[in-house]
């Protein structure tokens, strides 16, 4: 059974940091993505890792995506957090190597985690 389990969310003050983890089990993946959804808003792309890295403009320079292939785990290090980063963060994964045309498309990912809440207070 394939599972993606996120962890690491929580409450942090503006300017603080959090590291999200996404542990995959059941198979390995070529592509991982992080998406987020704030209340009343659509799910949006945050970051992805395939053979390279991709970031949304809103998080570039503050967030870093990385992976530990031995642990089948992907991370999202979030620094300089802002109140507008408050959302439920979802990990997504796909067996294929997504490219520059597909990495930001939620529909391109076959597997999703349950989400973890990140709340940034001002």
3D structure, described in words:
By secondary structure, the chain is mainly beta. Helices cover 0% and strands 50% of the residues. The chain has no helices and 11 strands. Strands 2, 4, 5, 6, 9, 10 and 11 form a 7-stranded mixed sheet that branches. A 4-stranded antiparallel sheet has the order 1-3-8-7, with no helix packed on it. The protein is globular.
Strand content of the residues, in percent?
Answer: over 45%
Q: How far apart, in Å, are the first and last alpha carbons? A: 40 Å
Find the count of extended strands (DSSP E, 2+ residues).
Answer: 11
Low-confidence residue ranges: none
Query: How does the helix and strand content classify structurally?
Result: mainly beta
Question: Percentage of helical residues?
Answer: under 10%
Average pLDDT metric: 96
Oligomer: single chain
Helix count from the secondary structure assignment: 0
Radius of gyration: 13 Å
Output the keywords.
122 residues, mainly beta, seven-stranded mixed beta sheet, four-stranded antiparallel beta sheet, globular
Summarize the structure.
The chain is mostly beta strands and 122 residues long.
Q: What topology does this entry show?
A:
Layout: E1 3-7, E2 10-13, E3 18-25, E4 31-37, E5 44-49, E6 53-55, E7 63-68, E8 73-78, E9 87-94, E10 111-112, E11 116-121
